[in-house]
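Lab manual, section 2.4: Encoding a predicted structure.

Procedure: take the sequence of the chain (177 residues), apply the prediction step described in section 2.3, and record the output as structure tokens. A sample record is shown.
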Amino acid sequence: MKLHDELPVDHRLSQVYRFGAGAVGVFLLVFGILALVDQLDFFGTTGKDVAGLSANGALGILSVAVGLILIAGAFRGGNFASTLNITVGILFVLSGFVNLALLGKDANVLGFTMSNVIFSFAVGLVLMVCGMYGRVGSALPHDNPYWRSRHAHQAAREDTARQTKARGLPGGPVNAH
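Recorded output:
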């Protein structure tokens, strides 16, 4: 199944994907720029407070890069933004776990603190929810392009019944399974 071909370009779900990617992208871009303006140590294991989070130069550059990628995804929209949100969200959650294990160690090259770990988990979940909205679930409406792709035979039967009814021909009930 190809998920990237299912959603029409102008579908209303695209706005959720775009907003999620854009909002997080702008925050990360601003955070990264503020970290870089402060000229922090590049790989300092104890970062400096920037916008309530610990940062160093490496985290600043990484934040700018990820922010720009998410903003580009917001401009592109559609399934690309959805898939990007899910992927980056998963990476944020994984980063939270990895950096949680590195707290207080010399390998903490991004200068994470517990607030950064919590932020990483929260942003990861927000991005995943924005990316999965209307795409994953057991109660998707039957006009949803993702539902239609996963249930092609039933969607075809429903379309045939709808067309038959619209033409005034006897069609009988549509099988729900």
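Check your result against the sample. The two ends are 20 Å apart (CA to CA).
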